[in-house]
Amino acid sequence: MSRFIALLIIVIPGIIATIGIKLMRDAIFHIVYPVFFHFVIQFVIGLAFFILGLTFIGGFILHRDRKRNLTKGRFSKQKKS
């Protein structure tokens, strides 16, 4: 059950990032969807979707690797003294 939840946590931001890539590609080729009234706004929203999705996936993987001690000290949290 926990693996299924983890899969969903990864798949949903992946879909959002994919939608962002599609919006950016369509904006470059001047294919504007009716929701957006200008291709620049469509590109910026697509870029935001892509960055947010990619950041979430990267943070999730980093959190999982820190928990399993796979970061080899490079990304481990440092204690404040």
Automatic annotation (TrEMBL):
It comes from the Bacteria. The keyword Membrane applies. The chain crosses the membrane at residues 33-62. Keywords: Membrane, Transmembrane, Transmembrane helix. This is Mn2+/Fe2+ NRAMP family transporter.
